[in-house]
Amino acid sequence: MQFVACNHEAHAQQILDIFNDAILHSTALYDYKPRVFNAMLPWFQAKALHGFPVIGAVNHEGVLLGFASYGSFRAWPAYKYTVEHSVYVHPAHRGKGIGLALMQQLMAAARDQQVHVMVGGIDVENAGSIALHERLGFTHAGTIRQAGFKFGRWLDLGFYQYILDTPEHPVDG
Known about the structure:
Strand content: 25-35%
Strand order of the largest sheet: 1-2-3-4-5-7-6
Shape: globular
Number of strands: 7
Order of helices and strands: EHHEEEHEHEE
Largest sheet: 7 strands, mixed
Structural class: alpha+beta
Number of helices: 4
């Protein structure tokens, strides 16, 4: 396995397949309908515009095993040192440490970009993702009860955060 910076040309369809599996079969994404391929170019463009990484784990044949990224946490300027991240692993490759490795790469990228807080919104029934985040040192920061409704039931959304030792000299404005 190696890590790559994902791009639209090489990875859009594979990322879309992973997203759509999560939409259709899990509560990892609080979305109802599979995404369409045409949505991927704006997704990649938004990541590039803001300098947000999209880190992929690929096998020796270049097949995407999983990916991790982050984006803005909230739109107001004072949140500029906080990001909300996500990590997804292809269903055929879960349980092999890929999510952990991707998160470690993403946390290193966040340090390099002078991020201070990483936030993950995780469905409270997603024990695997919660365990992964806790293993990395994330702590539970709160839960919004009945935040979503999917598969005929209310979903509680837990927030997990990790405080990085960056930036060295934060500034207002």
